[in-house]
């Protein structure tokens, strides 16, 4: 696949994992791609925690399911019915979890380029996640970003220092296939906006 094909082939994967092992050289390439991401002031404020331990993954999965119930209870009947058909995690089905964290002290005290935008370091971590995701897609792996969790719970589960923020639990592993249509579109939760709906010219709201 070329770059554009990888970008459009990427999916947020849930139910398609096989559980098969990831060859060590493939995993290394994917993590190296993530680590090659640009970062503010070359601070490289990310760390990657590889989670294979079944008891840890099960504990996290149980927490995610509890948070799913919290979210579902906030929905009206119609949306709750749609949501009931959507799988939000593949924690146990995937080969491993990769937890990506943000360390705001990395490169401190003077992080070049962060003095005016405090979140620039967090943006850098998101770029590393995107690199990882695209590289994994090129390697034939699926990735699913789990966001139904409380940061303090995950911090305690993995002994993450207080100053470090857990940004993402990524479910990673070989898949049977990647769906042609993203799950949220397929199940009727939302549809992707056309590009022209989000384009502005010279000032916000100016469409041409």
UniProtKB/TrEMBL annotation:
GO terms for molecular function: 5,6-dimethylbenzimidazole synthase activity. Keywords: Flavoprotein, FMN, Oxidoreductase. Its EC number is 1.13.11.79. The keyword Flavoprotein applies. It comes from the Bacteria. The keyword Lipid metabolism does not apply. Gene3D superfamilies: NADH Oxidase. PANTHER family: IODOTYROSINE DEIODINASE 1, NADPH NITROREDUCTASE. This is 5,6-dimethylbenzimidazole synthase. The gene is bluB.
